[in-house]
């Protein structure tokens, strides 16, 4: 499918753009263009792929997404390498996960080539929006929603796929070397058989109250426990977790359908194994976490995801009080793994696995 190129009549002036790029924050600044592709089950599927000016879209007030939340999204980053080329990190994994989410939400799949071509076009079109701040990247947000106008609970027959881009700096406001997290006891994120493994807006809407509770307790993020026993550690609001032990083993919660299968998580499993560590995907309880942190058996806890890459968890707070992991700052393995991952993503360390796609 060819993408129609719609000329932007009035892109942001260079001086204004440079000003916005000096300190972009996270998800606040947007580039000039956006991608749109429409879907109609009665017209044979996907049609009218285009890239044009980023602007508000018109939606019928009865559009299904506004009532029954049929919506999915992805989050990925484009990096500018030393030679000026742009690269994506494992974009086909995002394309695959997008379709996994689509199936769970009874939405049509988007052919992977179309997903990949859309983000390629957007990055290249808005290449001047790359932020040169430390740790900066062009964050890409592909998403799809039900646009059909009807008030009935059934899968829609019309959808819109879009992608927008946002130049970003660091994720955590504090820029903290280690984050403090809050154990949610009053709320859960996902139940077995639910939508926890899909990247769908409702999961994040449901996380806002527990996240606010975490913030009110002076914490950066919330950690969710399983919905059944309220015992097993699942994930943060937007990051997966790894527990690094003194005996050279690492544990990360298994993909049982209630957590998001992070692409950073999958990459870290491989990188940690390369470092000679034994990585096990198995359940780990909140009580054991506290015991192991206290005894010194647990050396580090890492949180990982596209947005904040690899971040140390320094302190865990909850209704039962607080405990500190290691020194409370970033540990050795967290630093090492972060350096390796960032190095590969940014083209500083050789990519031996075919993880990096140059655009
Ligand atoms: C709930 C949740 N868990 C984990 C992750 C990490 O996933 P990834 O490494 O693919 O960014 C994210 C981020 O997208 C997320 O939203």
The hetero compounds bound to this protein are:
pyridoxal-5'-phosphate
Helix content: 25-40%
Oligomer: single chain
Q: Roughly how many Å apart are the termini?
A: 18 Å
* Overall pLDDT: 96
Strand portion: 25-35%
The count of helical stretches stands at: 8
> Radius of gyration, Cα only, in angstroms?
21 Å
Shape: globular
Structural class: alpha+beta
Topology as H/E string?
A: EHEEHEEEHHEEEHEEEEHEHEEEHE
Give the uncertain stretches in residue-range form.
none
Number of strands: 18
* Biggest pleated sheet: 9 strands, mixed
Compact summary:
The protein is an alpha+beta fold and 359 residues long.
Q: What labels would you give this structure?
A:
single chain, 359 residues, alpha+beta, nine-stranded mixed beta sheet, 8 helices, globular, binds pyridoxal-5'-phosphate
Detailed description of the structure:
The strands form two sheets. Strands 1, 2, 3, 4, 5, 6, 7, 8 and 18 form a nine-stranded mixed β-sheet that branches. The mean pLDDT is 96. Helices cover 26% and strands 30% of the residues. Helix 3 packs across helix 4 (112-125). Strand 13, helix 6 and strand 14 (278-281) form a beta-alpha-beta unit. The protein is an alpha+beta fold and 359 residues long. It has eight helices and 18 strands. It binds pyridoxal-5'-phosphate (PLP). Pyridoxal-5'-phosphate binds at residues 75, 235, 238-240, 260, 262-265, 305-306.
